[in-house]
């Protein structure tokens, strides 16, 4: 498949860009932050997202969605990255929708997917427990109890966990931390007894949650996929999430870069535009090249995810590692080249730096993914 | 799409049947590359068979027109041939500056006569070309070149000196930049001209490099008579041809950093630094360097693929090859730094048979030229800054 967008995909990009740049420029995020908004995103805008078919992008048509693929989800994520629009798109429409459509029973799909499509149901994946993303280290225990299970343990960095109507929880039903076997995914109602959600406002003015499970009872029907065999489903869903976050970082990097190049042409010192200085020209050129190469790697990974999810791991590791490194470089160069202005809160560039840091950690940073690649190649 | 799938299946079968097993192993020395030319010698029977089969199929240059000995394939088909060759590790049957540099320029700027004369001899590996661009005082500032061509009836008389002429001592013909109008501004008085290296007055002198090899020469022209009909494109507009050719040269050099096949670098490193029971390298820092390198290498491969697809879709920037040249050459230098570090003291032997005559350190030293030849990394970044990013000139 050619590594360029098709005509339909370009149209999707244009319509996503039109909506997002119009309704949710960076000032939208700034307003939510300054107003200490209880939700952290605009529910009204999320309704518009649903009306335009974005919230159900990955949901099969029979459940009210558009039945599109990861390339299309990546296109929307990239536009989100350009303005840092906070929304449940990643947590609900990408990660949760993928988990339920790929792992869910017919009954589970029928119960949850239409709500994701029409924007009425928000869902979140609870995976991380420690400071770093290590899915196989999952310790949260699910022990059999009667007809179901009892969940005990802690989750952190549950993206949009503070507003979720449904949690997808990775738990250990067998084996010990570090093992692939013995992981199980559960669909859990956040209002269940014994479950405590603490909203954690993050450095980037987006939201996550810490969740404590104290003998939370769930019935057998709440198992997503198969007991003890959840790592395959989880791995695929995480890879879809990684592809999406990598796309967001491409959009973010390109936006920061565009703003920086504009600044290099406008800002005058020593009687000329600072973009005339070779020291800055070369650094700008290097950054441009890094972004272009990362863009190709990310599109390659998204296509690989759509072609065969089980064979996409290497391409995804490359994409997420590259995107993390590139975004980190882009925001650092962005702030540096904006000089003192780049350090001010009044100026938008700092928002990009903060979001890039969060996106790096989300679903594994560049080190994690380089390590995954090395393991995959046997060294 | 169905037709392309059929083409892929047929290509795979044909390559399977026709590519000798020896030609599917990674190349280990310069002799493994077949350059063609009047004095060409095959280093093995398998090399000869592979070359002749590919030549007869038109696949020494699959995407050139059939009338010039190419395969007449479109972009998608040629990509499939490349992919299927890479999949079995098939070597290039013929490597030449005629294919990677002169050919594209002739196809765009050459007369019918010039194309008919030269292109078939390139695809058939009959004539080996070299590139007369750089001069002792015209390196990064190539357009200040001084080799002059003075009019004498139907001929030019050429005098001057070129340097860094790759394999000039083995080449049959040269494509050369000469100054035809000394009074014009420096970019405006240059012509692009072709001539036979056996012409009277042409001499070459190999330059010994830090690798101990002499892939480059000094080339001298002393009253060389060349027919005016050998100018490609318009007289005094040779800079256009030169720039167009440089884009292809840069694309070729950037490709030096791509390695689709062969053992992963981490496994090569394990041979010398050792690994634990799970195969994990004993040197954690080196392992992390290698992994990061391989991330970047895979990303570059995707970017190279995308560059071709963008060009096909008419969406590419003409200066993008400078971006790829910069990244590909810097990456290749990184690759060899890692290989040297992984090899440790074993990679320091220069002459022993064990080290195949110091193959690794010599290759390592060779890569240092990658970011100089065909335009330095600094020149590439300058081109990207000015032509793609539109940053103001100083």
UniProtKB/TrEMBL annotation, chain A:
Matching Pfam families: Acyl-CoA_dh_1, Acyl-CoA_dh_M, Acyl-CoA_dh_N
Protein's name according to its UniProt entry: Acyl-CoA dehydrogenase family protein
Family: Belongs to the acyl-CoA dehydrogenase family.
Acyl-CoA dehydrogenase/oxidase C-terminal domain boundaries: 229-376
Domain of life according to the entry: Bacteria
Matching CDD domains: ACAD (cd00567)
Keywords: FAD, Flavoprotein, Oxidoreductase
Listed SUPFAM superfamilies: Acyl-CoA dehydrogenase C-terminal domain-like, Acyl-CoA dehydrogenase NM domain-like
Species this protein is from: Bradyrhizobium jicamae
Domain Acyl-CoA oxidase/dehydrogenase middle positions: 129-216
Cofactor dependence: FAD
Domain annotation Acyl-CoA dehydrogenase/oxidase N-terminal: ranges: 6-119
Residues annotated as transmembrane: none
From TrEMBL, chain B:
Residue span(s) of domain Acyl-CoA dehydrogenase/oxidase N-terminal: 6-125
Coiled coil: none
SUPFAM superfamilies: Acyl-CoA dehydrogenase C-terminal domain-like (SSF47203), Acyl-CoA dehydrogenase NM domain-like (SSF56645)
Keywords per UniProt: FAD, Flavoprotein, Oxidoreductase
Superkingdom of origin organism: Bacteria
Residues of the Acyl-CoA dehydrogenase/oxidase C-terminal domain: 236-389
Cofactor(s) recorded in Swiss-Prot or TrEMBL: FAD
Keyword Metal-binding: no
Domain Acyl-CoA oxidase/dehydrogenase middle intervals: 130-224
Keyword Oxidoreductase annotated: yes
Cited Pfam families: Acyl-CoA_dh_1, Acyl-CoA_dh_M, Acyl-CoA_dh_N
Record family assignment: Belongs to the acyl-CoA dehydrogenase family.
Protein name: Acyl-CoA dehydrogenase family protein
